[in-house]
Amino acid sequence: MAVYTQVDNEALETFLSLYNIGSLLSFKGIAEGVENSNYLLHTDAGTYILTLYEKRVDASDLPFFLGLMNHLAAKGFACPTPVRQSSGTMLGTLAGRPAAIVSFLEGVWLRKSLPRHCAELGAGLAAMHIAGADFEVTRPNALSVPGWRPLYDACNGRADEAIPGLSQEIEQELSFFEQNWPTNLPSGVIHADLFPDNVFFIHDKLSGFIDFYFACNDAFVYDIAICLNAWCFERDGAFNISKARSLLQAYTQVRPLSADELTALPLFARGSALRFLLTRTYDWINHPEGALVRPKDPRECLKQMRFHKDVTSPAAYGLDY
Amino acid sequence: MAVYTQVDNEALETFLSLYNIGSLLSFKGIAEGVENSNYLLHTDAGTYILTLYEKRVDASDLPFFLGLMNHLAAKGFACPTPVRQSSGTMLGTLAGRPAAIVSFLEGVWLRKSLPRHCAELGAGLAAMHIAGADFEVTRPNALSVPGWRPLYDACNGRADEAIPGLSQEIEQELSFFEQNWPTNLPSGVIHADLFPDNVFFIHDKLSGFIDFYFACNDAFVYDIAICLNAWCFERDGAFNISKARSLLQAYTQVRPLSADELTALPLFARGSALRFLLTRTYDWINHPEGALVRPKDPRECLKQMRFHKDVTSPAAYGLDY
User: Fold this and answer.
1) Is residue B110 part of a domain?
2) Which of A46, A308, B193, B255 is deepest in the core (most CB within 10 A)?
3) Nearest CA-CA distance, residue A170 and chain B, Å
């Protein structure tokens, strides 16, 4: 929620001269994005987002992220589209940082969602999975099972400071998943971070996805599982089966799920809850005293993980099975 | 440099329904403004700024500020124009805060200015003074001589913590100004905070002024004095007489200065340096440890104050006199 790198008008005008999008009318730093600095940019030619990639983003991943957005947009999937410099490159340098300009995607993210929004999300997610199928660059998922134990180890045995008893529960889950994680499921490019603030709507209709900076190659069902956790639990922790049904039905109407995928869904939902439990626990115990940004509550993910552990059939998610 | 109050899409949509500017397409919190929360807003009808007024702004002043922007815009002066609700009011309530929507003013603020930009500023300032002449609401300048001593007293004798010896120098200046402050100079609405970040340019031409939240009634020469300090000193503290000359010549071509105003200019320049020295000293000694925003350096104003104290004629500002 901050602009980490300040850009001055002269440097930006020089940078813009490398593009064919007219000259600068205005730019404003926007309070969005935890990882990067973002500016909303007006030129003679239209409205854009300028992103400066900060240190937490591995610059070697940028061709994947920008290439993916470009690929999806070319397939008609609604997402920010990287603008090329006259030289053809999508990635430049500004204020000492890797930087890119993408088209501005209209839409607002929903603070409260209804089942019909989850249906929009599900159909959009399936469309994204199909549109990304022939994208040729790959990026492994750093936050799947092999990445979880290092993340847990980085908590230095302090997980119980976030939630008493958490260490033991995480260790049990890690051991379980290290021995029971399905492979050979249908895979491709997944977004891997489709929380509500990355999904835009206009008048109750999906207008597109943003923030592809966790995108990677993995089982499609991992993406669905993340959405189940991010969209289908109420603030009090209760699972909303109507939302899950809407999401899954809409998804399968666009891209049917195989029997293997359906069977694996509860396990992936439990695993994706663990993945966010781990990063939130890490952030919780490493949170600087008095910092402006409140860390997200790991308790939410723990409850979800326990919920999915008890699920024995995808029928629990509202599917006829 | 922050968004203090979070707005959710539903509350914003309800708020927008009070206006005739179409429905919501997107909104982004922008990292501008120290006092208020600002959002850049897209609707079917165009681009706007939504401002939520935070506690540091006295709500009883808002009709003056909004009325002034409305008045200036109606006179053809380029500044954000408040949008009226269907009921006619320019001021509403959103997320528990007084809130207004204004038109979006294109332009960038200059991190480095040249004499030609100072000429644009001078001509614009004179045009604003003329356009505001018949605005009928008034607001006294809380940061003129009578306001300075309370501000100094609020520093609790700690000014020397900012700059050794500062207390004594401020006390001498306060006593001097309390006995030697010209009255009866041509007066009207002044902006009172025309630092570079409040002055927008497109392709080296002035596109308008923003942030009228210090505007008040006072001598026009006070506004000119603030601009001399804000625009005509280099980073190393050196006075740039070419910039001052450009600013003043362009101003006087639009609104000639009387002999009294010219004579008073060095005193107002010295006084306006003291005014910002006082607020910066207060902010410096009351700055929370480790806060994100670095307080502005009061030393800059002190040097300016000393410079103007030695000026014996407006010829020092590049005017033929």
Assistant:
1) no
2) A308
3) 34
Residue A154 has φ and ψ, to the nearest 5°, of -65, -15
Hey, are the CB atoms on B108 and A3 less than 8 Å from each other? no
State pTM to two decimals.
0.92
Interface check B134 vs A, CB under 8 A: no
**CB–CB of A87/A18 below 8 Å?**
yes
Query: Which residues in chain B touch residue A110, judged by CB atoms under 8 angstroms apart?
Result: 9
Task: Establish how many alpha carbons lie within 13 A of residue B127's alpha carbon, considering only the half-sphere containing its beta carbon.
Answer: 19
Report d(CA B285, CA B88) in Å as an integer.
44
Q: Inform me whether the C-beta atom of residue A203 falls under 8 Å from chain B C-beta atoms.
A: yes
Question: Are A234 and A86 found together in one domain?
Answer: no
Q: What is the ipTM of this complex?
A: 0.89
Tens digits of residue pLDDT in B213-237: 999 999 999 999 999 999 999 999 9
CB nearest A29 (choices: B30, B105, B292): B30
B210 and B282 co-located in one domain: yes
Confirm whether B3 is domain-assigned.
no
Query: Between chains, do A109 and B42 touch, taking CB under 8 Å as contact?
Result: no
The enclosing H or E element of A250 equals: helix A241-254
B10 in A contact zone (CB under 8 Å): yes
> Which domain, by its residues, includes B180?
115-317
Token pair belonging to A75 = 């397939």
**Chain B environment of A40 (Cβ under 8 Å):** 28, 30, 40
Which residue carries 């030129």 as its tokens?
Answer: A43
Asked if B158 and B289 sit in the same domain, the reply is yes
* Rounded CA separation A129/A216 (Å): 11
pLDDT beyond 60 at A1: no
Contact state of B30 with A40 under an 8 Å Cβ cutoff: yes
> Which chain A residue has its CA at the smallest distance from B104's CA?
A26
Take residue B170 and report the two structure tokens written for it. Answer: 């401020």
Closest CA to B222 of B143, B314, B135: B143
Residues A95 and A129 reside in one and the same domain: no
Report the candidate in A214, A216, A245, A203 with the shortest Cα–Cα distance to residue A228: A245
Residues B235 and B302 in one domain: yes
What gap in Å lies between CA A120 and CA A246, rounded to an integer? 9
CA distance B301 to B294: 16
Alpha-carbon gap: B184 to the closest alpha carbon of chain A (Å):
40
B11-40 confidence digits (pLDDT tens): 999 999 999 999 999 999 998 766 799 999
Contacts of B87 (CB under 8 A, 6+ apart): B18
Q: Which residues 25-84 in chain A show a CB within 8 A of chain B?
A: 25-32, 40, 42, 47
3-state class of A69 per DSSP?
helix
Please give the Cα distance from A110 to B8 (Å, whole number): 8
